[in-house]
Amino acid sequence: MRPDTPAENVDHATEAARLERTAGLYPEDAEALLLRAAAHRELSGDRPAATALYDRLLASAESLENPFLVRALKASNLWEYGHEAEARAIIDGIRTGSPRDPAPWVIAAEALEAHDELEAAHETFTQGVRLLLTDVPEPPYATHPLLFGRHRVRRMLGVAHDEWDAVADSVHTLPVSLDELHDPGRVWSLGSENPAELEAEISRLRAELGAYRTALSRPFPVAILHWPAQELTELVTAYPSLASEYPSHEEHLAAIEAALRELAASGTPNLGVVTGTVPSYEAFAASEGTSPSDTSLLPQYATILAARGRAVAWPPRGGACWCGSGRGYEGCHGSEDA
């Protein structure tokens, strides 16, 4: 969501303007496009312009997929250019609203942490963890930053481990422990003249970088793109060159099921199906600066939809078929004859 390309390699202001124009053409995708534009505005140093984009989205909050996420990003941005009181008020509102998505909790808590409000950050992390993970047998991947952030702040506060810290340790997979990664004294070792201390710190930093890389490549489902019949007709009518990809809707559905079964047989985990729409696909093509008729764009579009949480797990467990027929999966594409 927040591009991290250095400013010297990207003209963030120009990229933001392009995304804003695209959002005007495709209002149904405005939320995703304007959030990316706001991130570019922040990176360009124009934080008031970023706030204006967040406000533009919040003006139609009833149509947003995740209004709490937009509010959290706005609060984080506001605090960076001197609007502390407003940022605090927004964070208080997020906590009161108790969103079920971990991202607003993480952003709000990290904003507090970044400004040395460690007690408030700890309270925010803890509230989010208790809301989302109480009586949950296995913490979902998206909640790991909540657990890790809470662990980090507690180490900085010097408090003893509790049961949630144990959960954080249990989902941490790197060779360097969370206690080492979150050691408040690490910063001092960077100024040491002892080669052994510096070498140990470099190892810890490499492990931490590995954690960031893992987060950036989070295991979204391997998703296959599905077009409902009406959407596929509209797509092929508008872009005839795609007819070679989709000879008919029946063949399209059969190809999806066959591809998923082949992937499953090869041991590929986390399989899913994402459903496309022509306006959304056109908006994605515009954001990539290419034509919707470019067939190489189709798998990229599927990946983006999966990254936005639009994937439906395959195979459905006792539920309706992914194709939208309304029948159970076992009596539809899940049958032996499919």
Tags for this model:
about 350 residues; mainly alpha; Serine Threonine Protein Phosphatase 5, Tetratricopeptide repeat; Putative cytoplasmic protein; 3 domains; 3-stranded mixed sheet; about 5% strand; globular; disordered N terminus
Overall radius of gyration: 23 Å
Helix-strand makeup class: mainly alpha
Q: What's the helix count?
A: 16
Strand order of the largest sheet: 1-2-3
Number of strands: 3
Shape: globular
Mean pLDDT across residues: 84
Using the 3D structure, state the CATH architecture of the largest domain.
Alpha Horseshoe
The percentage of residues in β strands lies in: under 5%
Largest sheet: 3 strands, mixed
Percent helix: 55-70%
Which spans have pLDDT < 50 for at least 5 consecutive residues?
A: 1-8, 214-219
In CATH terms, the superfamily of the largest domain is Tetratricopeptide repeat domain
Distance between the termini: 38 Å
CATH hierarchy, class of the largest domain? Mainly Alpha
- What letter string, H or E per element, gives the SSE order? HHHHHHHHHHHHEHHEHHE
CATH topology of the largest domain: Serine Threonine Protein Phosphatase 5, Tetratricopeptide repeat
The number of domains: 3
Give me a quick take on this structure.
By secondary structure, the chain is mostly helical.
Describe, in plain words, how this protein is organized in 3D.
- With 338 residues, the chain is mainly α.
- It folds into 3 domains: 12-181, Serine Threonine Protein Phosphatase 5, Tetratricopeptide repeat; 182-217; 222-331, Putative cytoplasmic protein.
- It is built from 16 helices and 3 strands.
- Helix 6 (102-114) packs parallel to helix 8.
- The radius of gyration is 23 Å and the shape is globular.
